[in-house]
Write a structure and sequence with these properties.
Length: 127
């Protein structure tokens, strides 16, 4: 990496995509669990479902593909309480894989869920 690129890099992650079989079902799942609206947008002639984010910041989307509970885990921030989000997972069509777990002091809490499509996804919150 050049010195210029290293100086301007804020984070290693700039965008993420969660593979889903059914984008509308997955959209309802994430909107329910996160209590945040996702938006449909057009990108390169295709409709995608995008998680809320502010620029500059890390964004992500739901993309049609083959879900997996193996491999990379993306952690989504929960703005209210992690307990609240976890309480909505089963009703939205998913399951809790790893319950609320404390991180180092001042870093909050995390949990892992299996979404409506079969993906393992992490949740992170400060409470």
């Amino acid at each position: 990496m050049s010195d210029t690129a290293a100086a301007t890099a804020v984070t290693a992650v700039t965008w993420f995509e969660i593979q889903v079989r059914n984008p509308q079902r997955a959209r309802r799942f994430y909107e329910t669990v996160l209590e945040a609206p996702l938006q449909e947008r057009e990108m390169n002639g295709q409709r995608i479902v995008v998680f809320p984010y502010q620029r500059p910041g890390i964004g992500g989307s739901l993309e049609v593909g083959e879900p997996s509970a193996q491999g990379t885990v993306v952690y989504l921030y929960v703005h209210d309480s992690l307990d609240g989000a976890l309480s909505r997972v089963a009703a939205a069509g998913g399951r809790v894989e790893t319950g609320k777990t404390a991180l180092a002091p001042g870093m909050g809490w995390f949990a892992r869920i299996i979404d409506s499509e079969g993906n393992r996804v992490g949740l992170h919150a400060m409470s």
